[in-house]
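Input for the complex:
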Amino acid sequence: EAQVTQNPRYLITVTGKKLTVTCSQNMNHEYMSWYRQDPGLGLRQIYYSMNVEVTDKGDVPEGYKVSRKEKRNFPLILESPSPNQTSLYFCASSLIRGPSYEQYFGPGTRLTVT
Amino acid sequence: KNEVEQSPQNLTAQEGEFITINCSYSVGISALHWLQQHPGGGIVSLFMLSSGKKKHGRLIATINIQEKHSSLHITASHPRDSAVYICAVRLFYNTDKLIFGTGTRLQVFP
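Predicted:
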């Protein structure tokens, strides 16, 4: 089954404790992206990647890092989480960047930083 | 002002009603997406449009590029259509980037 998986689905952590949210897709998609969703603000892009070893900043990259060492994986790293990073996070992938291809979303990771 | 605006923000309907959700945008786009987010949080892509109209079951999406406006219609609405519907545009000058509306929360009552 074609899917995007994220782990963990739920995470409560404390300020400053490094964490990684994993994202994996089994569709051989070149394009992967991370979004955060906050009430009243909608979805906002954090980082995206057009292929292995190619990443770029989205709208809200501060406080986040990503890496793309393999085509299927695109982990999101919070080196020193802060309470303002409490949010619902989505990973997404698509076959290729451009207007013609839909994005497949992971199930979401709800992160709480205390 | 947001680059992508949706209306209404909230919508309630009785089962069987015809529903319209609107999306207006102020930027040049190469495509527009309609997404559905269920109460559990998962997001599903419904449509991708660059012109005209698309239909899938009871869902119809239209776009008017000149007026920078798109509509999502649901015919014969059903309680299982209750969800948040999100409009997103792919920028013309940067097709890697999606800008999202804040969503329309739809509740359909039996």
